[in-house]
Amino acid sequence: AQSVTQLGSHVSVSEGALVLLRCNYSSSVPPYLFWYVQYPNQGLQLLLKYTTGATLVKGINGFEAEFKKSETSFHLTKPSAHMSDAAEYFCAVRPYNYGQNFVFGPGTRLSVLP
Amino acid sequence: NAGVMQNPRHLVRRRGQEARLRCSPMKGHSHVYWYRQLPEEGLKFMVYLQKENIIDESGMPKERFSAEFPKEGPSILRIQQVVRGDSAAYFCASSPPAGFNYGYTFGSGTRLTVV
Question: How does pLDDT run across A28-39, given as a tens digit for each residue?
Answer without folding.
Answer: 666 789 999 999
